[in-house]
Amino acid sequence: MVRISKDICVEQGHEHMNAMQIDLVQEAKRIVSSASEQGMVIRVLGGVAVQLHCDAILSPLQREYGDLDLIARRRDASTLDDLFTSLGYTPNKVMNTLHETRKQYFDTHFHRQVDIFVGDFEMCHRIPVTEARLCVEPFTLPLAELFLTKMQIVELNLKDILDVVALLAEHDVAPQDEETLNIDVISRLCGDDWGLYTTLRLNLAKIREILPQIEGLSQPVVDVVSKRIERIQWAIDGAPKTWRWKLRARIGTRVRWYQEVEEVRR
C-alpha cells in the first residue's frame, strides 16, 4: 500500500502556513465585502473557501493555497472590471473577451491570480448556482455546492482530496444548510445529471479507499468521514431520477460523461 504522507501533502500545522496563504483568506473577505458595498454578490470557492469553513483544519489535511477562485452573479459580470481594478487587480483582457459570459480572470503585480466563474460553476460538470443559493453564506458558496465543485473533478488530485476530507470531517450531512452539507441539494443535482452522479459516485469510492492511507489521520476521523460518504452514496442512489438522467444512464460510460477541461495557463 502506498501511503499518503504529510511530506507529500504540504507543510503541516498552522505554524507552517506562509504569509501568502493567510493573506489570501483575508483578501477573499476583502473582495467579497467590497463587492457587497457596491451591491454586487461574489462568493469564494476552492481551497480558500474550505479554509473559511474549517478554522481548525486537522493537521494531516492542511495545505497551502495558491490562487483565488470566486463566483459572481451573472448580472454583475459587466461591473467586475471596475471592482477589481479599484482593488488593485489587472484584468486579463484577452481571456476575459474570450470567456466573458462564463469566466473572468484578474492578476496582481505580485503574481496572484483570481479566477471568477460567472453565473453557474462549470468545469468537468456544470453545477447550477441560483442567486438565492449564492446568498446562503456570507463569504462562500454553500457547503453542498462547494463540496460538488470539488467532487465534479474527474481526475481528483491530492489537494482536492484533502479539501473534501476536511469538509466531511468537520461538517455533518443533513437536509439543511448552516455549516452542513445539504444532502437534499446534492441529491437533487445528482438526480438530474447522470454524468455528475457518476463522477461523484466514483470519487466517493476513491476517497473512501484513500482515507486510511492519509498519514496522521486518526481512526475516529476516518470512521466519521466514511460514514458521511456512505450517507451521501445512499442518498444520491435513492434520490428520484429525471427522465434525462434515465435516458443518459442507458448509454452509460461507453460515451464520455464529462467535459474535458484544459487548465488556463497565463
Description:
- With 266 residues, the protein is α/β, with parallel strands linked by helices.
- 48% of the residues lie in helices and 11% in strands.
- It contains 12 helices and 9 strands.
- The chain has helices spanning 6-9, 19-37, 46-53, 80-86, 93-99, 131-134, 143-151, 158-170, 183-192, 194-210, 219-238, 243-251, and strands at 42-45, 68-72, 90-91, 103-107, 113-118, 121-122, 126-127, 173-174, 181-182.
- The strands form 3 sheets. The chain has a 5-stranded mixed beta sheet with strand order 1-2-5-4-3.
- A hairpin with a 5-residue loop joins β4 (103-107) and β5.
- α3 (46-53) packs parallel to α8 (158-170) and α10 runs antiparallel to α11 (219-238).
- It is globular and about 45 Å long.
- Mean pLDDT is 87; it is low at 1-19.
What is the topology?
Layout: H1 6-9, H2 19-37, E1 42-45, H3 46-53, E2 68-72, H4 80-86, E3 90-91, H5 93-99, E4 103-107, E5 113-118, E6 121-122, E7 126-127, H6 131-134, H7 143-151, H8 158-170, E8 173-174, E9 181-182, H9 183-192, H10 194-210, H11 219-238, H12 243-251
Parallel strand pairs: 2-5, 8-9
Antiparallel strand pairs: 1-2, 3-4, 4-5, 6-7
Helix pairs in contact: 3-7, 3-8, 7-8, 9-10, 9-11, 10-11
